[in-house]
Amino acid sequence: DTRYLADYQPFPFILEETRLDFDLAPDATRVRANLKMRPRDATKDLVLDGGSAVELLSLHIDGKVPDPALVARDDETLTIAAAALPDAPFSLTTEVRIDPSSNTAFEGLYLSGGMFCTQCEAEGFRHITFYPDRPDVMAPFRVTIRSEKPILLSNGNPVSVGDGVAEWHDPWPKPAYLFALVAGDLVAVRDVFTTRSGRRVDLNVWVRPGDQDRAGFAMESLIKSMKWDEDVYGREYDLDVFNIVAVDDFNMGAMENKGLNIFNSKLVLASPETATDADYERIESVIAHEYFHNWTGNRITCRDWFQLCLKEGLTVFRDQQFTSDMRSAPVKRIEDVRALRARQFREDQGPLAHPVRPDNYQEINNFYTATVYEKGAEVIGMLKRLVGDDGYARALDLYFERHDGEAATIEDWLKVFEDATGRDLTQFKRWYTDAGTPHLTMAEDWDEAASGGQLTLTFSQRTPPTPGQDDKPPRVIPVAVGLIGPNGDEVQATRMLEMTEAQQSFSFDGLGARPVVSALRGFSAPVVLDRNIDDATRAFLLAHDTDPFARWEAGRDLAMSALISLSQGQAAGADYIDAIGRLAADDGADPAFRALCLMLPGDEEIATRLAAEGVTPDPDAIHSARDDLARRVADAHADLLSDLYDSMAVSGAYSPDARSAERRSLRIAALGLLNRIDRGDRAEVLFGTAGNMTERMAALICLIRRGRGQAALEALHDQFDDNRLVMDKWFSVQVMAADPAQASGIAQRLAARNDFDWKNPNRFRALLGGLAGNHAGFHAADGSGYDFTADWLMRMDKVNPQIAARMSTAFETWPRYDAERRENARAALQRMAAMDGISRNLREMVSRMIAAG
Ligand code: ARG
Ligand code: ZN
Questions:
Q1: What is the 253 CA–ligand 2 centroid distance (Å)?
Q2: What is the spatial distance between Cα 526 and Cα 379, in angstroms, rounded to a whole number?
Q3: Which ligand 1 atom lies nearest to the CA of residue 297?
Q4: Which residues form the Peptidase M1 membrane alanine aminopeptidase domain (predicted)?
Q5: Which among 299, 489, 527, 676 could disulfide-bond with 438, CB atoms 3.0 to 4.6 Å apart, if both were Cys?
Q6: Ligand 1 atom nearest residue 286's Cα
Q7: For residue 792, what are the contacts with CB-CB under 8 A and spacing of at least 6?
Q8: How far is the CA of 570 from the centre of ligand 1 (A)?
Q9: Which residues are catalytic?
Q10: What are phi and psi for residue 520, nearest 5 degrees?
């Protein structure tokens, strides 16, 4: 069932207009579709996509029933032979019956808490009606909804709203994956936005009655996003209404349906008592992300699903820029790099590695990955670094001008950069076509006598093989470098070195004394940098580097080298403890930056780094090394941390603004360390007194780590047992923060509870994701973590294959562990592979993972 990029063929018909008429009923919804079509090639049959649960009731071509012998139905398509079609514009009318109430996969039209809603990306529309369900077939839509639900929504502008019926018109041609429909008992938080050119747009955030007081932040975020896209990209909104709807059952985060974004309720609803600072930040960025898709995704969409990164990489890049403008840019950059390493480097290192633009897949839903999204965004960041801010702005203007209304490709995207800047991007394109994380080695050569003191940097690049790609030619790598003089002053401001060869040297002259190199500033390329550098030099950079990312990275490297030595049984950590103390005490540094520096790399990140160096990670040793180092930091700096804990308290009513959140983050980082030596006493007090979820959750994690979380967990449960989002946290935190030896036992116990509503994706992810996030717990040597996870994935696969497949990535690192763990993991993977009726989604994932072992 593999599909290949190289096989692309345009659709042989032009779709001029789509009319849909819905009669909603939970178990028997009728959909009438009227498609105005015109053949491009009259010799071709018309093949429409349509899932096996779509029941065809009638079919007419220009009002007449075609000869049944010329119509064929299989599990995935409806084919009308060319002989049954006019060689001129025609109208195709179908009536079908579908059953939203039995749709547990949440793909197509389904019910969530009694509300009708849809999710059509990537290929969900085919579960609603027969249609050319591919992104390069675009049409304006007219939609009529009949239902007794009070609120009836679809894409575009409302035409009429009556009793039990509503009609919507979306004038902007769009592919079916951007279709949406919502019908439910909903209330709106409302506002109005006036665009730069004077269009008045009604904004609504629709939620269930009772949730209105938690939707205000989402609305504020939307207004900021609309303004930002006008100011920074010159992009205006293009309809009279913009609707956002929050639903409780949703496979992913959110969806950019034209004019009707549908969101997982956890990315809309927030109040100080129920949401953390991180939740607020995430809501702001996902609201922005989906809004930005209106131009990068909707007005310009993808020719086929291989081009997914065209809209996702760019839209992630744009939402990252937005957050940097709204909050602290250096902190945002560091957070993004942390996430990239934790998820994308890990993916690139294992059996699921794939290019930013894959060239084959079995199930496209398996490719909504960190590589397509986050690495896709990094690639655009590199492009911008290479062509400069002006070049980037010109290229983007050209992109919008040239491709508005089209379904485009990565070739189109690169061409606008070439045309706008005159640069040849042939080699750069490898970032899209080649998988794997390049390793960059930097060697320094200092010549006191040459050119008044010359430093030569020699870089070599090498990318390890990935599945199906053994040979990795050199890529273009922008390496941002600065130089710090021996007294701590910067002697060379950031210079962008452009590496294009396997090995390449760059010289800096007239330096006088030998400087310290600050390399890969701002994380200028998504690579692993290997350099021969001692801890004293790292500590020097941590103290003096002017680039916040490189400064943080120096501290990170210090911590990492200490942790790696400790996990291998060697004594280490003194330099780190010393340097980190000085930084934590530096009141001139931004609190959130200091907090990031105080956070030790996670177990998973340590394991990924070890594996990159060819060392087999030992999860238990890593876990205790981390414990050990954290305790020693706390011991060494107890007074300082205690001062920070007190002085970073934010007084007054909780506000989610960036400055307050930054102070809380430093306070919490201090608490996490102090918790190692105060038996959890501070956490206990904080849990009982804090009025906001940020501090309560941090305190709860501390208490669980100290083995005294029971009372707090009970209190939280009593207070919030009717709040699904808080209860999700309640499930996940107990497993995630558990002593690894007990993690899968705790998960097992929680899974047996009545309120483990496992068919709800958020609840399932909370528990299974919580275990996967407990590195030494999931990778328990006895295989208990693997078995528990495999059991539940198999159960979930029968109900919701997308979720099962996505959560199966918990196993993606399995080949890097020791023989015993590998055996256990392989057995779990094989058990899943052998399951009767396994979905295409899960089958593709487990077979790719097994193939690597
Ligand atoms: N386009 C959405 C977003 O990034 C993601 C939807 C993916 N859904 C899916 N079932 N694969 O914003
Ligand atoms: Zn997106």
A1: 9
A2: 8
A3: 1
A4: 217-431
A5: 527
A6: 12
A7: 751, 758, 764, 768
A8: 45
A9: 290
A10: 55, 45
Q: Three-state SS for 677?
A: coil
Select from 119, 250, 252 the residue to mutate for testing ligand 1; criterion: most ligand atoms less than 8 Å from CB.
Answer: 252
Contact 668, 595 (CB under 8 A): yes
In short, whether 262's Cβ falls inside 6 Å of ligand 1 is no
Question: For residue 168, how far is the Cα from the chain centroid?
Answer: 31
Q: How many angstroms separate the alpha carbon of residue 332 from the centre of ligand 2?
A: 18
User: What is the C-alpha radius of gyration for the chain, rounded to an integer number of angstroms?
Assistant: 28
d(CA 251, CA 764): 11
Residues whose CB falls within 8 Å of the CB of residue 844, separated by 6 or more in sequence, listed in order = 361, 362, 363, 366, 805
Residue-wise pLDDT tens digits, 558-608: 999 999 999 999 999 999 999 999 999 999 999 999 999 999 999 999 999
* Predicted pLDDT of residue 64: 98
Q: What is the pLDDT of residues 18-48, one digit of tens each?
A: 999 999 999 999 999 999 999 999 999 999 9
> Which tens digits make up the pLDDT trace of 418-448?
999 999 999 999 999 999 999 999 999 999 9
Ligand with minimal distance to 318 CA = 2
335 lines ligand 1 (CB under 6 A): no
pLDDT band, residue 113 (cuts 50/70/90): very high
In this predicted structure, what is the pLDDT of residue 31? 99
Q: Are 135 and 407 in contact (CB under 8 A)?
A: yes
For ligand 1, say whether the CB of 122 is within 6 Å of any of its atoms.
yes
Evaluate: CB of 314 within 6 angstroms of ligand 1. no
- The CA distance from 370 to 351, in Å, is 14
Q: Measured between alpha carbons, how far is 764 from 368 in angstroms, rounded to an integer? A: 19
Query: Which residue, by CA, sits nearest to atom 12 of ligand 1?
Result: 255
Residue type, 66: P
CB atoms within 10 A of CB 213: 10
Residue 97 three-state SS? strand
Q: Residue 21 has which token pair? A: 């008429």
Residue 747 neighbours by CB under 8 Å, 6+ apart? 735, 767, 768, 770, 771, 788
750 lines ligand 1 (CB under 6 A): no
Ligand 1: distance of its center to the CA of 107 in Å?
11
Q: What is the position in ligand 1's atom list of the atom closest to the CA of 251?
A: 10
466 C-beta closer than 6 A to ligand 1: no
| 822, two tokens | 């590998």
The single-letter DSSP state of residue 430 is: H
- Beta partners for 445? 456
Q: Is 534 exposed, middle or buried (0-12, 13-18, 19+ CB in 10 A)?
A: exposed
15 lines ligand 1 (CB under 6 A): no
Cα end-to-end span (Å), the chain: 22
Cα-to-centroid distance, 312 and ligand 2 (Å): 5
Contact 224, 326 (CB under 8 A): yes
Quote the ligand 2 centre to 177 CA distance (angstroms): 13
**Does the interface ipTM go beyond 0.95?**
yes
* pLDDT of 741 over the 90 cut: yes
Question: Rounded to an integer, what distance in angstroms lies between the CA atom of residue 408 and that of residue 176?
Answer: 16
* Residue 346 Ramachandran class (φ > 0 left, ψ -120 to 50 alpha, else beta): alpha
Q: Given a cut of 90, is residue 853 above it in pLDDT?
A: no
Q: Is 255 in the pocket of ligand 1 (CB under 6 A)?
A: yes
Assign 244 to helix, strand or coil: strand
Closest listed ligand to the CA of 287:
1
Structure confidence at residue 651 (pLDDT): 94
pTM of the model: 0.99
Angstrom distance (rounded) from CA 360 to CA 373: 17
All residues at 6 or more sequence positions from 297 whose CB lies less than 8 Å from its CB, including other chains: 256, 311, 312, 315
Burial class (CB in 10 A: 0-12, 13-18, 19+), 804: buried
Residue 80 has pLDDT above 90, yes or no: yes
